[in-house]
Design brief:
The protein is mainly alpha-helical and about 425 residues long. Helices cover about 65% and strands about 5% of the residues. The chain has 22 helices and 5 strands. The strands form 2 sheets. The protein has a 3-stranded mixed beta sheet with strand order 3-5-4. The protein has a two-stranded antiparallel ribbon with strand order 1-2. Helix 19 runs antiparallel to helix 20. It is globular, with a radius of gyration of 23 Å. About 50% of the residues are buried. Bound molecules: zinc ion (ZN). Zinc ion (ZN) binds next to helix 5 and helix 8.
Length: about 425
């Protein structure tokens, strides 16, 4: 609330001092209170935690990310703001989504890549996201007091009585934190329009943007999962957007589609689709507490692709539920090895390690996890383990951080803080 008041105060000041800047994409005058440096700094700061909250980087096939970044940089080089520190990453999420943070920090989910046919459709996605950054849409939203929902607060993960309780519930808490940009409808249309111009400047076939919108319309008509609801709430697909892109494409020169290089780049991902399907079924079985089925599905996913952190993590969670703790620990070892840069397997291994009295390693795991994404569960148990080895100073520090997150774990942390 005070932040909104502060923004309102800034808006009043700006009304006198002038907060108008020329939009680098449209050339029109825009109201903005956020400087270009602030914008870039904000994007830099939020980029890594935003990735962590949405599955982390997709690393099973590292060549895919290199390819996506190449296509993205090609488009950024012909944008209206070529000097932004653009970066393009693939996230390990099934949700067919893509987003851009201010300053040119872009992400696309593997769940969207498998819906696309060629590089021109990919260029339509990335061109659209580049416009959000280049046209300072994030800065506009912030200036209008519509703060973007990208706070890197501790992710609340409820806990019962023990570390094991946190472990059991962590799975439920994760994934619900997905961040979505809140750009206006006007921003979306502007991104479609100028994104197509970037596509054409980079030599791509503009029909790719028409097909992309058709893919979105089809997905929104046949959607089943609730994760898609939140996605389409922030990216409303419509026949109007299809038609607008069609009109625009009709007046543009034809270009390349690069279907073969695109299909080569996503080949591994496509081969792994049955494995991800088994994983999803396993997650559902876990939720239904059908542990033997969940374990079967996790094993079947691993048999198809042994290098996916999510599959090993699921196996570890299920085994821990069955009280097969040492086997679970081995599965978490594999999960961490498959992607050491993802907070969640480190968190699970740390929580289970503490149960198994591997205190030193558990503390290291939890600290590593906390650095990647500050969660309440990690901070509470870092405090707990620090206290166990007599380090009251560190314990106080982490209990205080946990307490600020509120909730049950926050209360527990506060009580222990009071005892200290
Ligand atoms: Zn958009």
């Amino acid at each position: 609330m005070s932040q909104i008041k502060f923004l309102f105060f800034l808006a009043l000041c700006a009304a006198f001092l002038g907060g108008c800047v020329t939009n680098p994409v449209t050339g029109k005058s825009d109201f903005s209170l956020v400087s270009a440096q602030e914008e870039v700094a904000m994007g830099q700061k939020q980029y890594r935690p935003s990735q962590q909250q949405q599955g982390g980087r997709y690393v099973t096939d590292p060549n895919l990310n290199a390819y996506i970044n190449r296509v993205g940089q090609k488009l950024a080089a012909v944008s209206d703001r070529v000097h932004l520190p653009y970066e393009f990453v693939v996230l390990n999420s099934d949700v067919p989504n893509a987003w851009a943070l201010p300053g040119g920090k872009v992400a696309i989910n593997r769940g969207l890549l498998v819906k696309l046919q060629d590089e021109s459709q990919l260029a339509a996605v990335l061109g659209h996201e580049i416009v959000h950054a280049a046209a300072r849409h994030g800065a506009q939203q912030m200036s209008q007091g519509m703060l973007m929902n990208v706070g890197v607060q501790a992710v609340g993960i409820a806990s019962r009585n023990s570390g094991y309780g946190a472990l059991a519930n962590a799975g439920a808490g994760l994934g619900a934190q997905a961040w979505t940009a809140q750009y206006s409808q006007g921003n979306e249309l502007e991104s479609d329009k100028y994104g197509m111009q970037y596509m054409v400047r980079a030599g791509y076939e503009p029909e790719g943007a028409v097909e992309l919108q058709k893919v979105f319309v089809t997905m929104s008509e046949s959607r089943q999962s609730s994760s898609l609801d939140t996605f389409f709430a922030s990216h409303p697909p419509s026949q109007a957007r299809v038609l607008a892109n069609q009109r625009m494409a009709a007046s543009m020169p034809h270009g390349v589609r690069n279907k073969a290089p695109f299909q080569r780049a996503i080949a591994q991902l496509k081969r792994d689709q049955p494995a991800y399907q088994a994983y999803q079924e396993g997650r559902k079985a876990l939720k239904d507490k059908n542990y033997s089925l969940a374990l079967n599905k996790a094993n079947s996913a691993i048999k198809k692709q042994s290098n996916e952190t999510l599959f090993w993590q699921l196996k570890g969670i299920v085994l821990a539920q069955q009280n097969k703790n040492s086997e679970a620990f081995k599965a978490f070892n594999k999960a961490v090895a498959a992607n050491p840069e993802y907070f969640s397997p480190l968190l699970y291994r740390g929580l289970l390690g503490r149960e198994l009295k591997k205190n030193r390693q558990a503390e290291q795991d939890l600290i590593a996890s906390y650095k990647l994404l500050p969660t309440q569960a990690a901070s509470y148990y870092i405090g707990d383990l620090a206290l166990a080895r007599g380090d009251r100073h560190t314990a106080k520090n982490y209990f205080a951080r946990t307490a600020r997150g509120g909730g049950k774990l926050g209360q527990k942390a506060q009580a222990r803080l009071n005892n200290l």
